[in-house]
């Protein structure tokens, strides 16, 4: 979408249709030593339910984007899972692999929270319907665009419902760029709101010993989306700038 403001407004509608699930991140962090790997398409209704669960569980993962008519990770997906069904999760920490939102979210909650996935993250009819409507509200499908294959994965700080982060995730998906998804869900009231107009008055203090407090110490600011590209030594805030950077750096002129 060319007009950035319209793009963000449409993304607000998308998050609203899913009741802003994928905003809160748990205070309890159970990040395992190795990154779980998710084969994902940004506009797939089941993939969205899994990414909402990942934000809620405060888990970071490696994303292998599989847009429509994409090929970069589809062969690997087929080799590992036996078909092209999305979402597909591999957890190298346990050797488990699962297909489909219901199985994946059941596994993630059982493994990393020792409890059942909440109702709003189950792949039942209502959640799939709202997630389909959320995808439809973006007004287009995520189709692969010819792109440069990076040597190293990029890193994106995001949380699922973030209206500013969604267009960046869509672009990473279209360009089939693998990335580490760092989930930065809201852990307290002071985290709520855009970075420049938080609900909380006074100096912003993230909870201690969290990804948010580390981001503040290391980057001087807590805001998503935040992109790191080790292939070019680039780190940047601002969704509009990130989109322009990804297009200029990775998209083959069409
Ligand atoms: N102008 C920025 C706005 C980004 C922004 O406000 N992001 C929100 C999330 S959608 C944020 O970081 N809020 C503060 C927080 O989550 O701590 C952009 O386009 O990237």
TrEMBL record:
It holds the Pfam family GST_N_3. Residues 22-41 are annotated as: Disordered. Residues 152-254 form the GST N-terminal domain. GO terms for molecular function: transferase activity. Keywords: Transferase. InterPro entries: Glutathione_S-Trfase (IPR040079), Glutathione_S-Trfase_N (IPR004045), Thioredoxin-like_sf (IPR036249). This is Glutathione S-transferase-like protein.
């Amino acid at each position: 979408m060319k007009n950035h403001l319209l793009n963000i407004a449409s993304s607000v509608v998308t998050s609203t249709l899913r009741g802003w699930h994928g905003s809160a991140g748990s205070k309890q962090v159970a990040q395992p030593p190795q990154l779980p790997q998710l084969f994902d398409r940004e506009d797939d209704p089941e993939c969205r339910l899994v990414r909402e669960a990942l934000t809620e569980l405060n888990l970071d993962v490696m994303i292998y984007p599989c847009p429509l008519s994409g090929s970069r990770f589809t062969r690997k997906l087929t080799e590992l899972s036996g078909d092209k069904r999305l979402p597909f999760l591999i957890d190298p920490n346990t050797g488990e692999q699962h297909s489909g939102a219901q199985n994946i979210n059941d596994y993630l909650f059982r493994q990393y929270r020792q409890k059942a996935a909440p109702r709003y993250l189950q792949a039942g009819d209502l959640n799939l319907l709202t997630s389909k409507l959320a995808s439809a509200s973006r007004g287009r499908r995520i189709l692969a665009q010819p792109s440069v294959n990076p040597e190293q994965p990029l890193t994106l700080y995001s949380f699922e419902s973030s209206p500013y982060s969604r267009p960046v995730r869509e672009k990473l998906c279209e360009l089939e760029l693998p990335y580490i998804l760092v989930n930065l869900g809201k852990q307290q009231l002071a985290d709520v709101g855009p970075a420049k107009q938080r609900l909380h008055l006074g100096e912003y203090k993230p909870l201690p010993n969290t990804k948010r407090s580390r981001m503040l110490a290391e980057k001087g600011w807590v805001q998503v989306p935040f992109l790191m590209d080790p292939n070019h030594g680039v780190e940047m805030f601002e969704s509009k700038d990130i989109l322009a950077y990804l297009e200029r750096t990775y998209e083959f002129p069409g």
